[in-house]
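Forgive a beginner's question, but would it be possible to get a protein, spelled out as residues, together with the matching structure tokens, please?
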Amino acid sequence: MKKIKIIISFIILLVVIGLIGSFIYLNMTTAPYIKNIEIKDSINFKNQVIFNVEVDNYFYKINKEVWCYLAKEDKEPDINDSEWLKASNGYCSFTVPSGDYKVFVKDKYGNINDIDSQKVEINKVLEIKPTKKTIYLYKGGSEKINYELVTLGNVQDDITWKSNNESIASVSEDGKVTGNGYGMTEITLTSGSGTTNKVNVYVSSFITKPRINFDKPYVKCQQFTSEEADLIDNILFDRVEEAGYGTRGGVIAAARFLTLEFSYRIHYFSENGRLNNYPPYKHVDGEGRYYHRGLYLSEDDYADLEKGAILAGPAMWGCSIPMYVNLPQYKYGNKYPNGLDCSGFVTWALYNGGVDIGDLGAGENASHKDLDDLGTKVKITKDLLKSGKVKVGDLIGNNGHMAIIVGIDDNNYYIAESLNTTAGVVITTMAKSKLPSSYLYQHIILMDSVYKGEGKYTNMW
């Protein structure tokens, strides 16, 4: 019996020694582990995130100290790397740029968690960035919302879309917005991880589907409130920015907006003055041609004017002021609604498209710099029209008249212009076969050297 007790005691001793040994071994060789990872957007640093790692050691670990490491690769970091961050109260906190990270933790003894068993993949959309924060539509018009994702890790493009008011604008599964009724609403973009952003949508009666329409109503005096005038300006700016401010496309967009998309027609008004003040003119009549980025529809625009150079006005488009010229339809000194003459329209379109060439006339006097001194002036011939040199956005006219080519198809040129005979800003359709024999259009100004690039445009709207 005594011998049995000795054997049992010895076995118990071996077990205790084994447990103590195992405890010491595990304590010295077992790496700590990750309990949780939380990622938050950084308030102070754009495109960075706060990366919080909650860590812990097993109950048998005598020393609970833990260090964390973020790596871009699966490769285990060096144990002595200076980038190891000591955990405080069970947390390691990093502020890092967006990216795909692997998380490593180690203890005092240099044990590092096994990447194969504790590999952590972080996949999150940090931000949805729409290309445009505001979309402007006419009723029945459509535009696709483009965007980019700021992500952490490998994220599927699983954006969903929702309109706050489908009676104003609806949105398809691929982000195409359609204007259904007048007003303003929001489109909400949501990622699979819950990140959201919004795009404002205005569906406005101030714009229509672009088309040639000689029956549009004329702009009336003080027709628009300041807020409405600002909205119209913002639609114009949107069209120009989309095409490329300062480019051929930007100028085309400005000219097309006023002649095709804007719901109203601008009156003809002969402005003989130039702020260049070359003889015989020392004033500006009407002042609606060059001095405003945007349409001249609000008294707020008066602040832009050189008061000493104004003979008649100020008066926004549609408001009556004296016209100091004799034409068949207009009598010298009588009052007519303010608007644009031919060179006024061209300088307005150039300026609003981002090409500031100054307030120039239509080439009435060879001794002064005028619109036909821009670019390369070439006589209209059949060979020129067959050469492919003439593009949308080039100027066209004669000495005393200037216009802009805003469309070209197989048979016609579409010319945006303002004439006393057309009683305002319109688009004239001119057959290619008849253009070389035209009296009104005798030369084309090729504008490649004037524009700051091509931008985005099509030959037809």
In short: The CA atoms of residues 129 and 217 lie 39 Å apart. The radius of gyration is 36 Å.
